[in-house]
Amino acid sequence: MAVTAAPTEPGGSVPSDWAEELRAWLAESWDPDLTVGEWWERLGTSGWSAPLLPADAYGRGLNRADAMVAARIIRDHGALGAPLGMGVGLVAPTIIAHGTREQIDRFLPDIVTGKTWWCQLFSEPGAGSDLAGLGTRAELDGEQWIVNGQKVWTSGGHWADLGMLIARTNPTAPKHQGITWFAFDMHQPGADVRTLREMTGGAMFCEVFFSDAVVSDADRIGEVNNGWQVANTTLFHERSGMGAGAERGGIGPMARAGTVADDLSKRAGDFVRAPTGKKRAGVDGTQELTSPANVYIELARATGQDRDPVVRQGLAQSYLLGELQRLNTQRHKAVRAQGGDIPGLPNFSKLLAAHILRHHRDLGLRLLGARGMLHGYDAEQRDTLRDAPGGIVANRLTAQALQAQALPIFGGTDQIQRNIIGERVLGLPKEPGDMSRLPWNELPRNG
Prior knowledge:
Blueprint: H1 17-29, H2 36-46, H3 64-77, H4 86-98, H5 101-112, E1 118-121, E2 137-141, E3 144-151, E4 162-168, E5 179-185, E6 191-196, E7 205-216, E8 220-221, H6 227-244, H7 292-302, H8 309-337, H9 345-368, H10 379-384, H11 391-403, H12 414-425
Parallel strand pairs: 1-4
Antiparallel strand pairs: 2-3, 3-7, 4-5, 5-8, 6-7
Helix pairs in contact: 1-3, 4-5, 4-6, 6-9, 7-8, 8-9, 9-11, 9-12
């Protein structure tokens, strides 16, 4: 069974003008001896760091599919890719949609050049799936807001310079109407960030406690008490990004944006993986994973299970689900190019991405057999297991299996996605007993 990667150029054979322009720019501009910060400055000010953004907002105005092609062109050239994180994917489009011109020009340059790392201060211990029930308070005091409360499941909060904070600014309004969105400075005494260790052995998530923390009114994005609308823009882009691809592979070591990780002063070329000249994934983990299905196909071959009819069915399903995901993205691209939209597609796409992850969890553990019960929780344990059956790829698959439970929860649970599709796309009635019209301070609390 073989999988052929999708064409790297829109339309397959004829390169787009922007693609040729990008290649020419890379040939002139890329220098591996630049620091990460210097290279990202060039990439960001040219518009190629975040080409999905509008041309008048530090981007190139490309659609999502073409922006992914641009990222591959940069990678295939052997250059360091753009800074990753929530800044480009979530914050920038939110500020473009709801912020002022001054806020766009103040926040976006540091985002596209990697000078700042952002985190998302949305979920709370008592307001996860019911995000609008959040209780963190922000009270206006002159030209600044005083923030008290707690957030949890804050991805990368310990690396963050700034956070997307939504807080309760009117407790007597219905829960969706008394929220405001802020750009919050994480480097202040009033913000206490504590990491949460996960069952994978990593610590990507944090909890954040606010004790009389301060945020300027100039850093409020959108109108006071209109933060739910602003937050929905953020969530739309979050779900779109999650649904665009369930798995990523072959990107090599990642340079981290922001001041905390301290990667900006390091040599850019040290974060670039040398080309291997090979197209398919190998079980030793040294080749690029060109398709999510390929790593499972190669592992099935290596373990002698590629003739097992049940395994072959799982491999075929893996490929078909990946193609469905890709075609959904292409379909959305075509509709958007004609000025239309597909209602609910980000929600459908996130559900599909979660389904793909669960399928790959089950398929990967089946292929690994007893080896799937071992996982390297730190660098020393991963090195110990390097020579075990499956090698590096086996540890990737056990990590993926442990992480597969996360995507169906964060960014809005699968149940929330189905509710949104049912109510907003299909027009089905809401569940009885809707309390969205009650003032927030009169809502019943979990006891």
